[in-house]
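The record is given unchanged here:
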Amino acid sequence: MSDSEFDVPAGIDVLRVFCGPDGRHGNALGVVRDGRGHPDEASRQALAGTLGFSETVFVDDPERGQVDIYTPGLRLPFAGHPLVGTAWLLDLEILELAVGDVFARQDGEFTWITARPEWAPPRTLERYGSVAEVEALTGPPPGEGWLYVWAWEDEAAGRVRARAFPRRDDNITEDEATGAAALLLSAELGRALNIRQGRGSQILTAPAPDGTVEIGGRVVLALRGKPAPYAG
């Protein structure tokens, strides 16, 4: 972990979410601790595009857990790795989104959120015949729309190898760790999963009888920005 304060803009922390067991990898996330400095959607979208992370979170109310999520090119109603990361960073038990309340908990080295599959943006989940086929991909397969390719590493144990390709025009060729897609896959299969995605990120899932799915992973603070000037 680095506490460097000159590599990121003021008021922004950079996390790595869904890190592997060795603390490496994970999906980068920018967290704007005080969203008042970017009060409208246009300015938030512009900053998310400039930062270039797969997602950036703007915290509108840190006590109530009100957050707003952006990719470099669009606003999202829900996303897994931003909510896991923000819950960890702010030590929140509830995150308030327009789609509904997301409950969070800490369990040792893992942070978990509970969400509903219908909140996640659509994803094409495509099963491959082997882990080798998944790992042999050198880029996004032909086609349009968000694609999550996966194969069983150990079906009996619920271990999955996966990779994610947004296939949209925002310079994110491959997503390192995708909580929303993991949620959808866990719901579709109806079982808990231990997913190894990207270069070595790890995502855990656990579906519940009420139709919700828990998504869990490790979070590391990668860069800490200087405090932002007061925006009020």
In short: The longest strand covers residues 213-224.
